[in-house]
Amino acid sequence: QAQLVESGGDLVQAGGSLRLSCSTSGGIFSRRAMAWYRQAPGNNRELVASITKDGTTEYVTFVEGRATISRDDVKRTVDLQMNSLKPEDTAVYYCNMYPPLNNMWGQGTQVTVSS
Predict the structure, then answer these.
(1) For the chain, how big is the Rg over CA atoms in Å?
(2) What is the per-residue pLDDT across 66-89, written as a single tens digit (0 to 9) for each?
(3) What's the pLDDT tens digit per position in 34-56?
(4) Which residues contact 71 (CB under 8 A, 6 or more apart)?
(5) 25 alpha-carbon distance from chain centroid
(6) Residues 65, 13, 20, 91: what is their CA dihedral angle, to the nearest 10 degrees?
């Protein structure tokens, strides 16, 4: 059964960096575009960045220039490097397919940025 597990979230000061990682299982990783999403308290879940199976990346405006999404098809992981973190980046971060599959949401990993 396919599964996604996120890790790497932490409490950091504004201006700091984090590297989030998503480990996958179930054999579908290599055939799918993947993405990172986030959900802040009181907000809907939103897309942060995506990467196709061929490695083409896209970023939403609020992280462009501060984030790098990458994938390792051997390890079957998808990472999100976040730099220059801002308090408004505070959220639970999730990985999923792109577009997402509703039955694939994991527990996410909490990122908290203090001012």
Answers:
(1) 13
(2) 999 999 988 999 999 999 999 999
(3) 999 999 999 999 999 999 999 99
(4) 34, 51, 55, 77, 78, 79
(5) 16
(6) -90
